[in-house]
Structure formats: structure tokens, C-alpha cells
Amino acid sequence: xxxxxxxxxxxxxxxxxxxxxxxxxxxxxxxxxxxxxxxxxxxxxxxxxxxxxxxxxxxxxxxxxxxxxxxxxxxxxxxxxxxxxxxxxxxxxxxxxxxxxxxxxxxxxxxxxxxxxxxxxxxxxxxxxxxxxxxxxxxxxxxxxxxxxxxxxxxxxxxxxxxxxxxxxxxxxxxxxxxxxxxxxxxxxxxxxxxxxxxxxxxxxxxxxxxxxxxxxxxxxxxxxxxxxxxxxxxxxxxxxxxxxxxxxxxxxxxxxxxxxxxxxxxxxxxxxxxxxxxxxxxxxxxxxxxxx
Amino acid sequence: xxxxxxxxxxxxxxxxxxxxxxxxxxxxxxxxxxxxxxxxxxxxxxxxxxxxxxxxxxxxxxxxxxxxxxxxxxxxxxxxxxxxxxxxxxxxxxxxxxxxxxxxxxxxxxxxxxxxxxxxxxxxxxxxxxxxxxxxxxxxxxxxxxxxxxxxxxxxxxxxxxxxxxxxxxxxxxxxxxxxxxxxxxxxxxxxxxxxxxxxxxxxxxxxxxxxxxxxxxxxxxxxxxxxxxxxxxxxxxxxxxxxxxxxxxxxxxxxxxxxxxxxxxxxxxxxxxxxxxxxxxxxxxxxxxxxxxxxxxxxxxx
Amino acid sequence: xxxxxxxxxxxxxxxxxxxxxxxxxxxxxxxxxxxxxxxxxxxxxxxxxxxxxxxxxxxxxxxxxxxxxxxxxxxxxxxxxxxxxxxxxxxxxxxxxxxxxxxxxxxxxxxxxxxxxxxxxxxxxxxxxxxxxxxxxxxxxxxxxxxxxxxxxxxxxxxxxxxxxxxxxxxxxxxxxxxxxxxxxxxxxxxxxxxxxxxxxxxxxxxxxxxxxxxxxxxxxxxxxxxxxxxxxxxxxxxxxxxxxxxxxxxxxxxxxxxxxxxxxxxxxxxxxxxxxxxxxxxxxxxxxxxxxxxxxxxxxxxxxxxxxxxxxxxxxxxxxxxxxxxxxxxxxxxxxxxxxxxxxxxxxxxxxxxxxxxxxxxxxxxxxxxxxxxxxxxxxxxxxxxxxxxxxxxxxxxxxxxxxxxxxxxxxxxxxxxxxxx
Lengths: 293, 303, 423
Hints:
The complex is a heterotrimer of chains A (293), B (303) and C (423).
Chain A: E1 5-16, E2 19-30, E3 34-38, H1 45-52, E4 60-66, E5 71-73, H2 74-77, H3 90-102, H4 105-110, E6 113-115, H5 128-135, H6 144-149, H7 152-171, H8 187-199, E7 205-209, H9 217-234, E8 237-241, H10 245-251, E9 254-259, E10 262-267, H11 269-273, H12 276-285
Parallel strand pairs in A: 3-8, 3-9, 6-7, 7-8
Antiparallel strand pairs in A: 1-2, 1-4, 4-5, 9-10
Chain B: H1 2-32, H2 39-59, H3 65-92, H4 100-122, E1 127-128, E2 136-141, E3 144-149, H5 150-172, H6 174-184, H7 186-191, H8 196-222, E4 224-225, H9 229-244, H10 249-269, H11 275-289
Antiparallel strand pairs in B: 1-4, 2-3
Helix pairs in contact in B: 1-5, 1-8, 1-9, 1-10, 2-3, 2-4, 2-8, 2-9, 3-8, 5-6, 5-8, 6-8, 9-10, 9-11, 10-11
Chain C: H1 7-30, E1 31-34, E2 37-40, H2 42-64, H3 66-76, E3 83-85, H4 94-111, H5 114-139, H6 147-165, H7 169-192, H8 196-216, H9 218-221, E4 227-228, H10 249-252, H11 260-284, H12 288-298, H13 300-305, H14 310-336, E5 338-339, H15 346-359, H16 364-380, H17 388-402, E6 410-412
Parallel strand pairs in C: 3-6
Antiparallel strand pairs in C: 1-2, 4-5
């Protein structure tokens, strides 16, 4: 099992009121791969992401996240409505109540899935280092007493967190900007900081939502290298949404194509390039040429 | 039995007034996504204007009740609407791009300003207007009876007419379409040539006008008021808006009616000292059990 | 940039504003109700309209000047401004100032007159309230409009705890903090998962409900008549003129009785508590929990994506703030010797919020200064007491438009560069 899929999405359905955003999505992501989720605008890519990362509670289907240490059902930890059976079985009731009260997307992250956002979400009025320290909240020394008395153990834990923060700043080449406000950074730097921040939560799977949007070609090149480093040196599986087809074809091992809330093709880049359905979806749906197949 | 029926009738009138005020909360929330904290005080201002207009009319020797109520309604709606407009201009528009917290604090500030401004101008003592219309319809039921004063009948009538007119405006007219479009997507609406700033102003004016209708009706029924009345009634109307589903117009009306009736029943059957505690607990319970309210759509976060 | 000013446009703006002012102020300011009759005050309306017209003219001219345009541009571009990160080896001048302030603070009760001392005590109580609310509003970005409810819990906790359970000041100090925190948890847990605005209105209701209960539940709280509250004791010695059993403070030390002693003692404890809270606050922003609060204020969704349970993090800020409010309440009760519901109205919450807003959301020093400013000044200018609330309101609106971060600049501490390593 451990070498298999890190993420299994089965029959995922998502409705907003009467609008069916996702219809019966099924795909698997292999551990250690770089996979991409592509499709025309409005195909439902970001909706899939939001379901995977627990920001939307899917209307139906299963999402299983299988990391090295834990097996998580993403939909369950968000807190489901009570079922009639719960009132018979106290254990099931307590479990559901627990997730209803304390569940949420943060549990998805704690299970080893980190994400970035299409419209960058940094803590703009905090410094760059502090952004990375917040990301280590779960591993930090959170004891109130130790913190207020500034004990040795607390200082050591803080130092360790700082070391880790500066390590990741080194990886994304932002060490010299450590003490600037995150909001002051340039667009490309903010994108890199966001990736570093999500890496600070020790994920096994990282979901990048349009990481190359707004970057120039050389920055995109850098990003591609960085994604490879993440996978090769840090054992992270990468799932990304991207419009830059050159980049997608370059780094992906596996591609899932969505259109109108449905999976229209899955496979390796070579396969996808020549898939008539994919070509039709792109050329039929859009005038502007982002595709470059 | 008759007490229950009597409280139902009282609750219905009270609730229709809550519904009118709740419309102001729900429309503003729908369009700019924030609670208009000064709305209760707009209601309070309208109560003062009602009394002033009634006093002026009697000074000019107008005694006929229909003229008084129609005149008061028109003048009060106009002036209170102007207050709604001015509040938006001063305390909300400059903060359109600021953080939520800043806008909220500014709204609280506005509420304090209105309260104290009225208190200083008109004095802190309680004010009142004379009883303009007496008499009631009485139904005998078994040993007891239920009575509805003519004033309460007028409240029901005017409240439902106002709601009907508003619903018509929002559903059928061009202005209403523009309001709904701005509520759905302000950016897109402005790209399509809708002056969203103006629409937001209009929504504030509509909300204030509805509060003004409520102010006229309640003031004519109860007679007494002071500069503090907007506070509690504001929280209750907000509860009504949340109960019905904030952002939903029919929800505000429904929520108002349910809150008014349940509060009257609670006051009549259990304890009138704690009826405010009851309404407030209701608010907390709705927020826990069904935050989107009865008719509201569940909120989808934009991630 | 064209800096010529179009006076004609300004004049038109001014006349329109004047007409609007006439409509707005005409009835409320010009016609004062007197029973079912009224008196007219046309001169007041004229003044109001004139002020609005002149003000509008001035603003209109200013916004057309180059400086005004610059300000408009800054606003529309959403420039936050005012936050700076200090360099890692920056040494604050406060190191020299703090000991002096502490020394002066400790000397105050021995030099000040009794009246000044009581005013300063009240000021310090508001410092405490301001600090408590600043954790909630300033750091965590949660608008709490019922802070006075926690203050009331502390104050009534002391008074009722003494009456029914015989608990004194020293035991109630921690118990009140815990009680207030529990009340905060019960109130906050259901509401904190919602949109921030709901919290504002629920807390607003909560503050009012607490007051209503204190007023109406007369069997326990004695209703509007209030309850008396005990004084703190000095290692068991009371600050009364005489007690039935045991010795009093002045007897034990062979001093003649002076009612000022109790104020001195309350002042000293309060001063130490304020220092402690200041220190804790200073530490909190450098601890994971404090950083999480601020991060949550900046972006809740990002926080959730990083594994932070936003409800619990907010709840911790809410409870922490509430407990400081409870402690302030205990001091208030013992200082007054008596509590009744009229001390805990919404206006009190508004005052505390005004302190936080003026001092700066998140700034500690600013809050201390603002607390003294807003409590001591009205004490000195009693003839303006009527306009106090109006002033708070104007202050909130103006501050939010002009300087939402408060008057004191917010600084963040920088970190020295590390080599960086994992594990």
C-alpha cells in the first residue's frame, strides 16, 4: 500500500445550490509523482482543489489521503451531518460530533496535505520569517507558561523553527528579504514564499494552484526546477493546476484533464497531447491561445 | 386560550415591524456584506421625526387622522432616507477598500454619533406623541375575548403594503434588477455599466425608508420613545434577519414574523422581564443550528 | 499633476452639502419636542448648516490640492502603511524609560493627593480593560462589543462571591479571571466559526443580556440597588476603621486611620497587575499563539490551510481578553466598594473600544496612553461630559478613515539571519 496512491478520488460530486460544478470525478495520484490538473477556464479545477484540501465539503464521493503515517477520509474530517445510525452507536456519534465541533480543513493539512492559493494568501502585514513561523504552529512549543517565562526549552524550540524557516527561505531564495513585510515582496517572490510556507507544515502532498500564473519565462523555469527539488530531495508528491502547457508537459508524470466538471482524459503527457477529446475541449471552448500543444 | 390568541395578534404586528427593520439589515448585508450597525439608530431617528412631524401638523391645525398618518409617513420616509444616504457617505463609502474591522468600527462610531446627537439636540428625557386613533375590534371567544386596536390593524396593513411595494421594486423594475446584479457580483455589474456606488447608496436609502415606516407605525402605536430605543430593536431586527436568512428579502419578513410571534408568546406565557434574553438566545441558537437561516443560501467561501 | 483648485466646483459641493444638512438637521436640531408641543431653535440649525458648508468647502478644496490627491491615491491603492519591521539588532530606547516609569509609578501613591490617586486608579483599570480588548480586537481582529459583560462578571463575581461564599479579593482575583474566560468560551465557541460580523452583534447582545440579568434577577443580584464589594486585605489585615475581630492595618502598624491607605494599597496591586499584563502581552506576540492570532487577523483561510484550527485559536484570544476584563472588574468593584448594573452599559464597551481604536489596534503603548487620555481628560473637563459619547463616535469614524492602525506606529521585531537547517 505504501508505494501506491497517496490520493484517491472516487466519484467526487460537488453541487452549489442547483449548479453542478463537479460530476463524478475519479482519479488517483501516485506517491512521488508530479501530476497536473488541467482544463479550460471554468472546468472545475479549483473546485476539485478546494474539495481535496477541505475548503469545500464535497456533495458526494470519497477522497482518501494515504500518507506514510495516516489514512484520512477528507470528507469525514470536515464534519458530516448526523446519520440515523449515529443515535444507536455512541462511538460513531462521538466521532461525528468531534469532527463537527473541531473538524475542518486544518485537519486535512495536519494529515499531510499542503496547498497554495491562486490569488496569493500571505499574511501581508507580517514579516517573511513570521509567515514561515506561523506555518510551524503545529510543531512549535505552544505552552503558554514556557512562552511567558521564556524557558530554555521554549527558546530552543523557537530556534529550531527559525532554522527551518531560514532553510526554506534558502530554497526559495528569499533569505535577504527575511525581515521585510510579506506584502511588500514582488509577485514572483510572494508565490515562492507561499510555497515555502506550505512546505513548513511538513506535507507529503503539496497542491499548487496555478503557481506559474503571472511569472515571466525565466521565473517559470526557476519554479520548474524548484518543483523537481521538492519531489526529489524532500519526498513530496506534487499536484498542480496550471495553464502554462509548456511547463505542464515538461514536469508532469501524469495529467488529468477536466472539462465541464468531468474528467475527459487521464494519462502521461504524450497521451494527453494526442488525445482528440482534449484538443476539442481546448480549441472548441476557447479563442485565446494558452494551449500550445 | 384567549391569551395565546391575543399574544399571537400582538406578535403578528410586532413581527411585521421587526420585518420592516430587518429588511434594512438584510439588504445592506446582501450588497456590501456587512452589518449596518447604525440601522437601529436610524429607526430611532425616524421615531423622533415622526413625533416632530405630528407636532408640526397639529400646530397647523390638521386633525384628520388619514392626513396625519400619510403626511407623517411621507415626510419621515424622506428625511430618514436622507439619513441613510448621509450615513453611507460618511461612515461607509470612505472605507470601501479597508479591512472589515475598520468598516465595522466606523459603523459602531456612527451609531454612537447618532445616539448622542439626538440626545444632545432633543434632550435625554423620554418623548411621546398623543394617541391619534383609539378604538378596537373585539372578538369574543368563549369566556374571554381577543381585541385588535385599529392602530394595530393599520400597522399590519401598512407593513404588508410596504413589503409588497419593495418586493415589486426588487423583482420587477430595472432598479431592482440592478440591485440584484450588484448583490451577485459588484465587479461584473460595474463593468456592465451599473453605477454600483449609486446602487449601494440607494440600498441604504431603501433600508432607512423601511426603518422609517416601522418608526412611524411603532411610535404612533406606543406613543413613548427615547434616544436609546434603536439599540434593542436593532438587535432584534438583526435576529429576525438572521433567522430568515441574511441577504434574503422574504427571509427578513418571515424572520420578523416568527420572532415577533414567539417573543410575544414568551412574554405573555412565561416572563416579560426576560423577553429580550429570549430573543437573544434565539439568535445564538440559530447561529449554531442553522447559520444560513430559514430561507438563506449557505455561504460559500471564496477561496 | 495639476494643482489648480476649481473653487466653483467646491462652492457647488458646499451648497449641496448645506442643503442636505438643512434636511438632516432641520427637524432634529431645529424643532425640540416639549411634551406634545415643540420649541424652535433656528439659530442652532443655522450654525450646523454653516459648519457643514464651510467644512465641505474646505474638504473639497483640500482634495483638489496636490496633497489631497496624493492622499486619495494612497487610499484607493489600499496602501496599509504604518507597519515597519525593525532590524534584528535594533535596541529599543524603552529599556531606559521603563525603569523610570516603574519607579515613578511606585512613588505615585505617596506623593499624589487622594483625589488624584482615585483618578489614576480608574485610569489604570481602563488600561487593563484596553489591554484585554486589544488582545481580542487588535491582535486577533475580532470585534467584541460586549466586553463590558466580562468586566461585569469580574465585578459582580467579587461582590456576590463575598456575599454568598465569603470569598475575598485575593481568592476572587484568579476565580474571576477563570469565570470570565469560561463565559467567553461558552459565548465564543458557537459564534467564532462564523463570519466576524456575527461575533460583533452577538457580543453586543451578550453585554446587554448580562446587564438585563443583573437588573432583573433581584433575588440574587439585588437588582438596580447593587451590591457592596469587599476591600483587599494586606496579609489578613483589613483597611477598615475597625473590625469586630482581629486588627486593622492602621492599628497593626500603629498609624492613625486614613481612608487613603486602601486606595494606596489598591493602586499598588493594580499597578503590579498592569505591569504583569503588559509583560505577558509583550511575550504573547513573540509566542506561537500570538503569531497565530495575528495571522488569523490577516487571513483566516490561509491559516486553515496551514493546519491551524481557527476556531480554537480565536477562542484562545477571546478567552484571554475576557479574563483580563474579569480581573479589571474585580479591581473596579473593590475600588468602588459597591457595584450596580448601571456601570456596565454598552457605552462602557464603546469607551473601551474607543481606547483600543485611538491607541492603535495591536499597539500596547498607544493603548496605555489612550486609556489615560480618554478616562482622565473627561474627569477634568466635566462640563463637556454630555459630548463624551459623541466624541467617541467621531473618533472611531475619523480614526478608521484616517489612520486605522492608530496613532502609534506598529513595529514588528526582526530576526537575525540563520544558516538554516532541517531538524
